[in-house]
Amino acid sequence: MRRTPRTPRPRRLVPALALLASLAGPPALAQYRPPPMSESQRMVKEGETAQVAANAASASGDKKGAEEKYRKALALFEQALAAEPGSVAAAAGVGAAANGLQDWQRTVDKVQPVMAAHAGELSLAYPLGVALYKQRRFPEAVPLMEQVAASDSADYLIVHYYLASYYLYAQRGDAAVTSLQRYLALRPAKLASNDFQIHELLGRAHVLRRDAASARASFQQAQAGRPESPSVQLGLASVLELEGKVPEARTLLEGVTTRFPQAAEPKEKLARLYLAANEVPRAEVQAQALVKLGSTPAAHLLLGDVRLAQKNAAAAEGEYRKVLELQPGLVVGQMAVGKALQAQGRHEEAIQFLEAAVRAGGNSLELWANLGSVNRRAGRYQRAVEVHRRVQEMAPRQALGWMLLGADHFATGQWDQAIEDYSSALQVEPGHAGAKQWLAAALAHRARDRAGASRMDDAVRDLRRAFDLDRTAPMSRRLGAALLETRAFGDARKVMEEGATLPGATWREGLLLGYARLAAGDAQAALEAFTRAGKQTEEPDAQAEASVGAALAEVELGQVDAAVQRLTDVGPSKAAEGVAEANLPRVLVRRALARLETGDADGAEKDLEAVDRLGVGKRPDLAKLVLFTRGLARAESGRHAEASAALKKALTPAQKWAWPNTRALADAFVLYKKGQVAQARKQLAAASKKPMPGQPKWLAAMTGALHRREASLAYGSGNMKLAEKALKAALALNADDALVQHNLACVDWRKGKTADALATWKRLEPSVPVAALNLGIDAQERRHDAAEAVDAWRRYLATGSGPRVAQVREWKERLQGIYGLAEPAGSAAPAATAEETP
Predict the structure, then answer these.
(1) pTM, 2 dp
(2) How many angstroms separate the CA atoms of 673 and 42, rounded?
(3) For the chain, what is the domain count?
C-alpha cells in the first residue's frame, strides 16, 4: 500500500512560532526606539508645541490667547535653556517666543551668549537680528540679518523686508532694491496680494538711486488695480522732483492734499517743498493743517522747521521739545532741539542736551553725528573728533563719518588730515559729491600754505588735483594763478581758457585769462580778454583792473601812448593802482626807447623825467635801465660825454636785462653819433663776434647807418670818392633805400654826372621830398631856368615843413620877384606836414 507524505501537526507549529517570536521580538523592537530625552529637550518639545498653538491663535486673531501661549512657550524654553545653557534649540525657542511677545531685550539677553558660541547658526541669528533691529541697534542687527538673508530661505522671508527698510533708512538704494527683489522671488503665492507694498518700497529705493524711470514704473505697479493711494502719489511726486519737475510735483501734491485732506504725509512733503522754495507762509499753512490732523512728532517737527525758517529759533525750540514729549528719545527730535539751541547761540546747552540723549541710550548715527558737529561749532574740536570717529566706526561702509572728521580737521586747518579724511570718504563712496567738493577745498587751502612757504611745485600739484575734482571757475582761477607764478605760461593759458567758459565765470576769470595769454606771448588775444573782462562788470574797481591789464597788452602791441594813458588815469581801484605804479615807469622807459628809434631825443627825455618823478622804488634793475636810456638820449642830442658816462654807469656791473655785448653796442652808437666812424666800426665788429638772438638785423642796420654817416661826413668835406664808396656799401645792404639812392645821385651831380642825377631825383621825388629841392637848385644854378626852379621849389614847399623850408621859400620868392613869375591860379598854402629827411 502506497504511503502519503506526512504533514506537521498544527499544535506543534504554533508553539515553535511563539518561541521564535519570544526570542526575536525584543531585539527587533529596540532598534527603532528613540533615546530618552533630556529634561531640557523635553521642555523644548513642549515649548515648541505651545509655540505652534500660539502662532495658530495669533493667526486666528485671538491676541489674548496667543499671548498666554507665547508666555507658556517662553517659560518652557527658558527652563530648558537654564537646564542646558548652551542649547541652540532652547535659545532659538526663547528668541522666537520673546519676539512673539515683543520682548526684544529678553531675546538679546538670552540668545546673544549662545550665538557667540555658534556664530553660523541661522536659527539663532534670525531672532537675535530681528530683536536688535526692533531696538534700532542697526550696526549689530544688520550683519546678522544679512547672514540670514544669504541663505535665501523662505523661512526667513521677513528678513529681506527688514533689510530693505533699513537700507532705505540708510539711503542705500542699490542694496534696498536687491533685498526687495529677493523678497518677491521667495515670497509664497498666498502673499502676492501684498506685493503692492513691496513695489512701493522699490519705488522709494529707485528714487534713492536716482533712477526715475524705474521708480515711476514701481510706483505705477504699486498703484495698479487699487484705489488711489496717497503714499504712492507721494512717491510719484518724488519722481517728478528727481526729473527736475518741481512745479509739477507741487501741483500733484496740492491735488493729493485736496482729495485726501486727512492724509498727513502729502501735507508734510508739500510743506517741505514750500520751505525749499523759501515760500515760508505757504509752508506754515500746511504745517498748521498737519498739526490739526493730530499732534504728532512729524507735525511738530515740521512746524518747528517753519519757525526756524522764520528766524524764530525760540518758537522752533518749543515745537521740537513737543516732539520729544510725544516720543521721548526720538533722534530727529533731539537733533532738532540741538539745532534750535545752536541757532540761539546756546552751543553749550545744545551739547548738554545731546550728551544727555546719548547717556539715555540714544545710539543712532544721526545723534552722534549731530553731537560731534555741535562740539565743533562750539570750538571743542578734540571732542568733535572723538565723537565723529565713533560715527565712522558705527558706519564703516558709509562716507558720513569720514566727511564729519574731514570737517573737524578742516575747521582747525589740519589740511593733511582733512585731505586724508575726504579721500577715505571717496574710497567708500566714489561718487560722493560733497567729498569731492571738500577734498578740493582742502587741497586748495594746503596749496595756499605751500605757496606761502615757497613750495610752489607742491602747491601746483595740489591745485591740479583740486581742479580735477572741482571743475569750477574759481578753482581754475587758483590753479591758473599758481601756474603763472611758476612760469608755466602755456599750462596757465589752457586752464584759464577752460575756466573762462565754465558756469559762473566772471570778469575775474577773464582778467586772469588775459594775463595768461599775455605771459604766453599772445598780446592781441590778451587785449581781447582784458577788454571782455571789463565789459563783464559794472564795478569801477573791476573795470580799472581790466583796464590796467589791457594797458600791459597794448605795450606789447606797440600801442605805448594808449598804454601810458590807461596807466596814468587808473581809476579808484587800489589793486589797479598798485599794478599801474609798478608798470608805468617801465612803460615810460619803453616809450622813451621807441622815441629814440625815431630820433625824438626831446620826447625821450620827457618820458625819463616822468619816470624820475614817479620813482623806481627798490628796483635797481629799472633804475639802471633808466640811466641806460638816458645815456642813449644824451647821445642822440649830441651830449656825447654825458652819454658815455651814463652808459658806463648803467652797465656796471652787468645787468640781467642787458646782453653780454650791450656795452660794445652802446659805445659804437655813441661813437657813431660823434662821427667817429672808424672807432664805431671797431666796436661794432667786436660786438658782432658773438651776436645774441635777434641782433643780426640790428647789427646790419647799424652797419648801414655807419656807411651813411661816413658818406655824409665825406660829402660835407668834399671827398666825393669816399662818399660814393660809402653810399654804395650802404646800398649793397639795402638796395631799395630811396634816401641812399638820392644821396648817391647828389654825389653823381657833384662829380658832373648831372643827367644820371636828374633822372634819379625825378624818379625819387614822390618818396623823397628833398629831391624836388635839388631839382630846383640844378635848374637855377646850372641851367639858369628860373621858372623851372620856382616850380620845383613850389613842389618841395607843398610837401610840408622841414629845416630848409624858410630858406627855400625865400629863394622862390626872390626869383619870382626878379623874373616877375606869379603863382599859378588856384594854388594854396601847403596842407600836409612831413618831417624832412636830412
Answers:
(1) 0.58
(2) 128
(3) 2
